[in-house]
Amino acid sequence: MELRESVRKFMTPRELARIADRILETKKFWDYPGARNGLQISHGRPVKKIGWAVDGDLESIRKAGKAGVDFLVVHHGIFWGDSGLDRKLRARRIREAKRLGVAIYSSHLPLDAHPELGNSIGLLRALGLGDARRKPFGVAMGRAIGWKLDGGRWKRSELVRRCEGLRGKKVRRWEGVKVIPAGPAICRKIGVVTGGFGDLDQVVKAGLDTLVTGEVDYPTEVKARELGINLILAGHRETETFGVQALAEKLKSVVGGRGSEVRGQRTALLRC
Ligand SMILES: [Zn+2]
User: 3-state SS string over 182-199?
Assistant: First the structure.
């Protein structure tokens, strides 16, 4: 056994992706058609450097290539949308990723939902709510991808302040936290779901007074005002950096744990 381990020097993107799929239980999830969870672009070489970005867009791919990343973990992969323009952009991303030798591993809902590495638990921790009593909340495609907190008292202004702290130092584009303060100033029942979660039916059904998420569309804002629910919108990207980072770190440790052959590997923390 030891011998087999010691002669195994490298891992290909396909092998690493299999490990990621196992960690995230990818097969257990339904997802939106554009998500295509798993390895989206591959190459046959051993992985030497793992990186992460929220979006698998051209800029992230180029930055990854420039940083020498040959296995890029993303949350929004390259297959969203199916218009002529979408297909054109996709072709360009694929061309560039292949040219630069960047494999792309994407995970959408499995990475939102994961109880340890996921976006929603990551956001809770970043907001200092990681230890609060919580239950699964926010069903998307049949499974809960977020959390609800009950039994505490949190100042809305303090929650907003903490959301403002999510902004990374190197992030250039950010519109700030948007608040629809239609609910109570002291929040007692909070839903936390990352990205663009705007399902107020679920919020009302769960009896929540506050929803923390990345963004919602305008009609949802109007409805929230009417319903007397606080919306704290901390940015789609800003609420979804946690999962990709945690997964990249985890994969790095998995690969690194295989022995000295991979000692040179490290995770590039890309902020795109
Ligand atoms: Zn998202």
Answer: CCCCEEEEEEECCCCCCC
62, two tokens? 């180029």
Domains of the chain: 2-108+241-261 (3.40.1390.30), 112-239 (3.40.1390.30)
For the segment 16-66, what is each residue's pLDDT rounded down to a tens digit?
A: 999 999 999 999 999 988 899 999 999 999 898 899 999 999 999 999 999
What's the rounded Cα separation, in Å, for the pair 155 and 98? Answer: 49
Closest CA to 47 of 36, 39, 55, 37: 39
Q: At what angle do helices 13-24 and 242-256 cross, to 10 degrees?
A: 120
| 164 C-alpha to ligand 1 centroid (Å) | 19
Q: Which CA distances in Å does 188 have to 107, 148, 151, 215? A: 32, 10, 6, 21
Q: For residue 109, what are its two tokens? A: 């809902």
Q: Which residues have C-beta under 5 Å from ligand 1, the single-atom ion? A: 195
Which single residue is written with the structure tokens 């109570």?
A: 184
Examine the pLDDT at 266 and tell me if it is beyond 90: no
Amino acid at 122: G
Mean pLDDT of the chain: 87
Could you tell me the maximum CA-CA distance found in the chain, to the nearest angstrom?
66
Ligand 1: centre distance to CA 19 (Å):
22
